[in-house]
Amino acid sequence: MTKEKKAKRSAPGRSVRWPKHMLLPLTAYHVDELSLASHLALVTCRSEEANRHMFNELIRITYLSFFLWETGYGEADIDAYIEAEHVLDEAVLKAERRGTWRLDDQESEKIERVIRIYDFQIGAITGKVFAEARLRLEHLIRDGYERSPVADFVRERLYSTHAVNAESLANNS
After folding, report:
1. Which residue has the higher pLDDT, 157 or 63?
2. Binning pLDDT at 50, 70 and 90, where does residue 62 land?
3. SS (H, E, C) the chain
4. What are the extents of the domains in the chain?
């Protein structure tokens, strides 16, 4: 008589059990591939060969890096992501009007800053952390970018700062 193994299910609200290899850092090969892809996307967007797909790749890298930063990976401040998001939003609008997909030198510098952060992040994270950030990115894309995660973060910080200041004023009265 054979024993059937029951599939283990995690209780609602419990985290997924990750395979052991996902708890290890990304391989050097994977880090190099991710880094090369991000740098090639930027180089392409600085040239006449750029297109919507390459801009979308830079947007994905920006949000992926932001999600990694939000979980504590990378020495940056929110301004890097605010600036990159603004540059990419404006560049896409400009490209749709003119038909030319290209970043100028000043715009490229803002994106390059995020790519440098991203390079550090992918060299320091586990497969699990990367997979979780990718899932967040996929949900954002699937949901149609209705709201910017960067703007939501800023809004949340402002709200919590104002709430703390209001509470502090109330306690001091």
Report:
1. 63
2. very high
3. CCCCCCCCCCCCCCCCCCCHHHHCECCHHHHHHHHHHHHHHHHHHCCCCCCHHHHHHHHHHHHHHHHHHHCCCCCCCHHHHHHHHHHHHHHHHHHHHHCCCCCCHHHHHHHHHHHHHHHHHHHHCEHHHHHHHHHHHHHHHHCCCCCCHHHHHHHHHHHHHHHHHHHHHHHHC
4. 24-145
The arithmetic mean of pLDDT across residues 139-168, rounded, is 78
Residue 115: Cβ within 10 Å count: 20
Q: Exposed, middle or buried: residue 114 (CB in 10 Å: 0-12, 13-18, 19+)? A: buried
Give residue-wise pLDDT tens across range 2-40: 444 444 444 445 566 877 878 899 999 999 999 999 999
Q: What is the pLDDT of residue 147?
A: 82
User: Does residue 47 come out as left (phi exceeding 0), alpha (psi in the -120 to 50 range) or beta?
Assistant: beta
